[in-house]
């Protein structure tokens, strides 16, 4: 997946606001895997929603801490972030 320059700029702007550089942020995530998993899960959901929108699929996001993440064609879906050989894909 390619990151748009405007999104990368937004990310860097946020890092400046919290006064941390990208290397320190990377280290923070490596030392706090529970936070990294949450960020990675959210990023996967954003990617999934964009892919569905590009394909003109009607999708409803279900908010909150629920076992159902999306509704597509009246079917419920729970999104899971992919893992390969016990490492993050």
In short:
The chain is of the alpha+beta class and 89 residues long. The protein is 51% helix and 15% strand. The protein is built from 3 helices and 5 strands; from the N terminus they run αααβββββ.
Structure description:
The relative contact order is 0.09. β4 (83-84) and β5 form a beta hairpin. The protein starts with a helix and ends with a strand. The protein is built from three helices and five strands. The protein is globular. The chain is of the alpha+beta class and 89 residues long. The protein has helices at residues 5-17, 22-31, 33-54; strands at 59-61, 70-72, 75-77, 83-84, 87-88. Strands 1-2-3 form a three-stranded antiparallel beta sheet, with helices on one face. Strands 4-5 form a two-stranded antiparallel sheet. Helix content is 51%, strand content 15%.
C-alpha end-to-end distance: 13 Å
Largest sheet: 3 strands, antiparallel
Order of helices and strands: HHHEEEEE
- Assembly type of the shown chains? single chain
List how many beta strands DSSP finds: 5
* Sequence of strands across the biggest β-sheet: 1-2-3
Indicate the overall shape: globular
Structural class: alpha+beta
